[in-house]
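Input sequence (245 aa), recorded before submission:
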Amino acid sequence: MSETMIALVTGANKGIGYEIAAGLGSLGYRVGVGARDATRRETAVGKLRAVGVDAFGVPLDVTDDQSVTDAAELIERLAGRLDALVNNAGISGEMDPGWVQDPTALDLEVLRAVVDTNVMGVVRVTNAMLPLLRRSASPRIVNVSSSVGSLARQADPDTEIGPVMAAYAPSKSFLNALTVQYARQFAGTSILINAACPGLVATDFTGFQGPRTPEQGAATAIRLATLPDGGPTGSFFEDDGVVPW
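Predicted structure, token format:
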């Protein structure tokens, strides 16, 4: 089995996910680029290889059980284990003008789609990859969340947290809570799992609005994916430190 560290990043064909893959690759990781779209996935792999990253494509739709199973089998064949899993794939769901999702008029199908990707997708992928992660001496799991999932910040009238987003924001609160439950289950093992907030990053996800670059947005996830043994687990971080739940 290769001693090279192996990582999988979901939703890695563009934006923050791509920069997480690039950052891990620059640290010497062999990186699986998880993405649904074959053309975008292979384009991303080509770009990463062009800058010296040992990258390979992983066809992966986090909402599809068979796709996730197939992805785990592919990594099993190509690498034999997994040292870092970054659950980055996510969707915002349909928005009204101004990035508003009005809870009083929320389409339940939009809510289902957001939860299926942002929450259930993380469970699908994490559980499918666990046998591979358990083969690592220092397995790390990072769930890419958002500070809009912080109930403390959402409930504080003096904190500017952005518009009402009744599908996206609660999906990240759900993801944060799930991260804690995984950490409790992994207590006493070598698996460290944490949530990361990238901040407001200018990507197509945000309509290229935001003060932060994708590289800046990737930094916290990269740090958490490469934590030393004995590092924090079951916590929620941004660049400046811990985010309140």
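Checked by second reader. The chain is about 40% helix and 15% strand.
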